[in-house]
Design goal:
The structure holds two protein chains of two kinds.
Chain A (H helix, E strand, L loop, with lengths): L3 E4 L2 E4 L5 E7 L5 E8 L3 E10 L2 E4 L6 E7 L2 E6 L8 E8 L6 E2 L3 E5 L1
Parallel strand pairs in A: 2-11
Antiparallel strand pairs in A: 1-3, 3-8, 4-5, 4-9, 5-6, 7-8, 9-10, 9-11
Chain B lengths: L2 E3 L4 E5 L4 E3 L2 E3 L6 E7 L6 E7 L7 E2 L2 E6 L4 E6 L8 E8 L4 E3 L3 E6 L1
Parallel strand pairs in B: 2-12
Antiparallel strand pairs in B: 1-4, 3-9, 5-6, 5-10, 7-8, 8-9, 10-11, 10-12
The chains are: A mainly beta, B mainly beta.
Amino acid sequence: DAGITQSPRHKVTETGTPVTLRCHQTENHRYMYWYRQDPGHGLRLIHYSYGVKDTDKGEVSDGYSVSRSKTEDFLLTLESATSSQTSVYFCAISRGDQPQHFGDGTRLSIL
Amino acid sequence: AQTVTQSQPEMSVQEAETVTLSCTYDTSESDYYLFWYKQPPSRQMILVIRQEAYKQQNATENRFSVNFQKAAKSFSLKISDSQLGDAAMYFCAYNNTDKLIFGTGTRLQVFP
């Protein structure tokens, strides 16, 4: 398996609180991605990074921010969590010319 | 904008039989990649097979093969000799700018 670790694996929190999810890679890949998975929607891209401090928005970026200060870490922050952000979040990495490899996902529940 | 459509929310197959999952996509690009990912109940996303659009030959990985019809923008996955472990969600995905666009998935059940 590609060296991708997502933390935490599960989290329950309350509406209005900030939440940060972490993705850590040991592959030194340039590209990192955050997706959310919801029933009936497949996976949808939230944000992605193409290098340290280089990030861009995806399809469903509202309410989320990201940061990448090191090649190996890509953080996803929900600034003020809402119930609509209850989802399973996946991180993925890629060299750019190869398929993306995914982490094991984080199940986030916002009450 | 590119889109990916999987029109079969659920499919079922008997063990040892063959099943085909459908996927269509829309793009104006000529150079791109297509993928099938498998997601078992463990939630992992596992790459099954990859097809480069410039290659006419259909990709094959053991019991998994694709039927890539570029003009029709169709990319179906055939699973031969189905096994119980093939039961999962299957996602078709499109990529031409380092971003994946996924279909909504097909849940495959395998019966003994």
